[in-house]
Amino acid sequence: MNLYTSLTIRYLKENKKRTIVTIIGIILSTALICGIGNIFESFMDYQIRETISNDGAFHATFYDIKKDDIDTITKSAGISKSALSDNLGYSKIKNNDNSLIRVKSYDNESFEGYQINLKEGKLPINENEIVLSESAYSLVNKNIGDTIKLQIGKRESKDGDNVSGYYSPEQGEKLVELESKNFKIVGIIERPGFEYNGNGVVTAITHLDINKLPKNKDINVSICANKPSEIYDIASKISKNLGFKEDIVNEENVYESDSLYYSSDKGVFYENLSFNEHLLRIQGASAYTHINNTIYMIMSIVTILVVVCTIATVYNAFSISISERKKQFGVLNSIGATKYQVMKLVFIEALIVSIIAIPIGIICGSLAIDLVFKCIQSLFKNSFIAQMNLRVVYKPYIIIGSSIIVMITIFVSAILPAMSAAKTSPLEAIKNSSNLKLGKVKDSKIIKLLFKAEGVLAYKNLRRNKKKFRITLFSLIISVVIFISFSGFMELFVRSNEIHTGQMNYDMNLYKNGEVEDNNLINDLRNINGIENFSINNYYAVGTYIKESNIDEIYKDLVSKYFEFEEKNNEFIYDFLNNHIMFPGDYAIGKLNLTSGSIDKERAINENGIILRNKSYYEEPGKKGDVSLTNYKVGDTIDIYEVSYDENTGEEIKTPIKLKVLATTEDLLPGNLSSTHMGIDFITYDEVGEKLGFDIDKSMVYISTNKNEESRDLIKALAENNGYNVNDELEYAKEMEESAMAIKVFVYGFVVVISLVSITNIVNTISTNINLRKRELAIIKSIGVTPRGFNKMIYLEGLLYGVLALLYGVPIGLGIDILMNKTLGDVIDVGMILPWGAVGICFVGIFVITFIASYIPMSKINKENIIENIRQESI
User: Fold this and answer.
1) Predicted TM-score (pTM) of this structure
2) How far is the C-alpha of 402 from the C-alpha of 462, rounded, in Å?
3) Which of 243, 324, 419, 673 fits a 20 to 30 Å CA distance from 855?
4) What is the largest CA-CA distance in the chain?
């Protein structure tokens, strides 16, 4: 060990607290960067596993291909692998009228590509052998080695249409074009991803031998491209060579032929060709590159935030350390140490803390994510996240990349302090005054007015050493920025998930056949304590004429693309078709959280008053969102119309109605899982509906309960007494609720970690700053400052730091949130969401933390001897 290393180690040992806090900051930052990478890879791993399980490991599939055309597909340039499969049809199960067996045939490549996992026995090797899924095996009352006879045919509805998917014998469908076939059961497979629980259809797969197929037999050909991004061009060229259609088809035409497949990424319908778009997106080959760019941009912003936080923590530690060790560096310079050797001391210190902190951070980041996954699977068993069976994926590039990022960050943080140390002259070091502002420091009249003499002293103390002041302030600003930015990002993440999956806001559904004008059920429901909310599902579709001036400026292009318009009185009028006027009942209206205005039944009846829900869901290739299309406000009048038809001529009649906005809300009524597609909702009382000529129907009610079994039994009994049927959605509601909670626990775990990094940074900055000024503070106490005045001065220093940190940090943090909001808006538009709650926490938290960080070292200084502290030199 050379002199410089031993000197650095000695310094680190003598300043254990400062060293430990620095190491903790680096550990947390490393864990966060590594954790972000692990989560990204873990979710990608799940997405790939799930997509391959459901749709296969193929990029595209051609359907109903003649045997002679197979080589045209499989031997095309750019194709890496191919597989053959066929849907033979469906067969009834003996002694079971509630289920069907779907019979498929796969070649070896399809068995591999669709991840058919054998549970028992073996896979079929010829067309006379078959494997059954676990659910199919439990229904057929057969064993491995037995022969099973299947009557295979097509499913046909009672109207003669082809049927697929969910099987319900009550719908009157039948099997046609039956062909009898005997198979030997050779194995049992795990339930394939494409076999859905509870839809009445189970799976059986036999072997497909291309050589034994007749020439006129149509089969399916699945392919993968060497480069996933090229699959759209390759498959499109093959499709044209085979004579298949490819066109931008109206949605009305999609049902004209079963052979048309829609590509949401391309916005195109293909004949006999579909793309595994989910897998392609995961592999970075989306037809819409902005999806991939958005993911990478968000990841980059988050990583940069963590890196900046690490820089602030490490730079702050080294800057304060070097600032207070100038005498040591000056002595080294005076005995012949070169600038390079002095800088080497600083870099050795950086290397030592890196060697200690980075491996611990990598381990903590990986273990923490693994622990989070296990906790979610244990605590939220019913959530879809638990059912995802997430596993931590350890990729070498994450470990190496995290280490390199943090290492570079640490050394970048140490460069400026190292250069400052190298420039220290012996005389300057002995005086130790290079950082101090000499001469008169100008007073602040506001500080003097508010905080008297102690405030002026605190203000001057900060301004005397501008460099240290800036380092400390920068560190606090970064902590505020990081907390606000991450909180905003997590709110965006949670809201995006709500838009993507919908919101489950009820757990019981009561319904009755026929129209119900009035009954005792609604009044009785009000008296059951366990009901949190209930809404009558009574609404009517109405059209709305909206002036261009009432369209939100941001969404004018979107509105112009979706709706017809005409010019009246020099202004364009848009015809919104898909709107709803809703009559959910007084109880549901009373439960709405109003964002503006107020609602009164009498006024609503007199003025045709409504509560406006100005949120619309839209989806287009590569993008979706929940947005406010109009800028209506309280007091505005909205022109709607109801459509009816003349009984004699069939002519369309539009009855105009004027509504007045009395209040606005963003709440969804129970039973509405998402916003209306490209439309707005008008919520009002039954009496208003009757006045306007609408029928008030109470045949369907959605209820949200406190999940108490006794309350639910009362509701069921009440429903039965009133002739209502009951759909109990408790399990699904719990699953959705737990899923939402699991996501919040998951994402806010990140906020907790980043908060710890920020708190560590603030505590380290403030407490170290005070501890290193013991001599200066002792001198201030020695000239007659009272203990109360001294304490006030220290607290005011922390207060000034906090105010300035908020003054700069809050706008910067909100600016970064706006950037992330706009970036994410290219894929999921959630409107502008800003983390005002996080801002409020910052306002309270930074003063509490700076107070605690100031109190601990200050209380120790108050107990210490003034003379000893005046004599003390900083190490």
Assistant:
1) 0.63
2) 36
3) 324
4) 111
